[in-house]
Specification:
This protein is mostly beta strands. Helix content is about 5%, strand content about 35%. It has three helices and 25 strands. A hairpin with a 2-residue loop joins β4 and β5 (about 80).
């Protein structure tokens, strides 16, 4: 077996600058990248791992798990210690290991990258690069997994990685991508890979066709929320499907004071006329909100605050039930005739959990 010899030049290149100018401080990752973008490769969006160089110790599919990585010390599998991430063999004879991922949306513009090496210490990746491409058509996936494919372009240049930590970098790129390739130098382990960006949706040709204006697949984004105490991300509200358990929604802590409410603000994927709204409490059976109301805002590119007096009532206070889709249309809606909106605010009374929030309508 040929053993790779690392020259001083390769070692210097691998140990890239620890704090480049585009680094996002760990305490700001969620409030910056996570507040205006979605994870374009999250498995919740039905992204897919197309190919990889190796996954001897832990599968590449763990990279796109939306849940935080966990640790199971003392647990061993046939290949070695159990890790919640992607881990390749030692002594890679190639410059790097790689994995190719198809986005879970039609295409997107990358605004940030997060690499989490949680619990990988001594076996973590030394550095990464991110490449992207735009390929559509029936043979797109087969074309780019070919080793001779020449359509990859740089999304994020060489960045050094530390052990067992979250690290993120901002990306300034207006190009659309449909697939990305994570290159890991020279080998090792990464727990999670997040590709923060803005969806470039494929809208129907007819402006009169009803679509889910709020869907993450259509570019909808949850901009802010009063809180998300139980680690259940507010962005879950706009995901496709109804999920598989209570963990895939938005849930707030129990309130103890009189008059308490929680709220969430959603930016629609397109300015539109509202036809119907669905509030889904799937799997929330003893912790669903008692009631909720919905307001709308439609003033161009402005991002409204929760307390802005210009919010207009769309759905008044309505009682909610457990594990159920609640639909509001027709006479249940107010201020929708002839009006177009860009943002919606759902207020829950007094607290609790909601699985999905769906706004259907037509673009204007």
């Amino acid at each position: 077996m040929e053993i790779q010899v690392l020259s001083p030049e390769v070692i210097q290149d691998t140990n890239a600058a620890a704090t480049p100018s585009d680094t996002v401080p760990v305490e700001l990752i969620d409030s910056t990248l996570g507040s205006t973008c979605i994870d374009l490769i999250s498995s919740s969006l039905d992204s897919s791992i197309l190919a990889f160089s190796d996954e001897w110790f832990a599968p590449a599919s763990n990279l796109t798990n939306p849940k935080p990585p966990i640790r199971r010390p003392g647990v061993f599998v046939p290949t070695g210690a159990w890790y919640d991430g992607w881990e390749t063999r030692r002594h890679n004879p190639e410059p790097y290991d790689w994995v190719i991922i198809k986005l879970g949306v039609a295409s997107g513009k990358v605004k940030g990258v997060e690499i989490d090496t949680a619990f990988f210490d001594g076996n973590h990746a030394e550095a990464v690069e991110i490449q992207g491409c735009f390929e559509v058509g029936e043979d797109a996936d087969a074309k780019l997994v070919n080793k001779d494919y020449a359509g990859w372009r740089q999304v994020l240049g060489h960045r050094g990685c530390g052990a067992t930590q979250r690290q993120a970098w901002a990306v300034e790129d207006e190009s659309e991508v449909t697939h990305v390739r994570l290159c890991m130098f020279p080998d090792g382990g990464i727990a999670r890979f997040r590709l923060y960006g803005q969806v470039v949706p494929v809208f129907p040709t007819s402006m009169d066709q009803e679509i889910e204006l709020s869907s993450a697949l259509m570019g909808g984004v949850v901009l802010s929320a009063s809180e998300e105490h139980f680690g259940s991300s507010k962005s879950n509200l706009l995901l496709p499907g109804r999920g598989v358990d209570m963990g895939g929604g938005w849930e707030t802590r129990r309130s103890r004071g009189q008059g308490h409410v929680d709220w969430v603000i959603v930016r629609l994927g397109a300015r539109g006329k509202i036809k119907r709204i669905v509030v889904d409490t799937a799997f929330y059976r003893g912790n669903y909100p008692q009631a909720m109301k919905i307001d709308a805002f439609g003033s161009g590119d402005e991002t409204p605050k929760a307390e802005d007096p210009r919010w207009k009532k769309v759905v008044g206070i309505q009682k909610l039930g457990p594990d159920k889709e609640h639909e509001y249309a027709g006479s249940s809606l107010s201020n929708v005739d002839g009006a177009a909106y860009t943002h919606l605010k759902m207020t829950i009374v007094p607290d609790g959990g909601v699985k999905r929030f769906r706004v259907f309508g037509t673009r204007v």
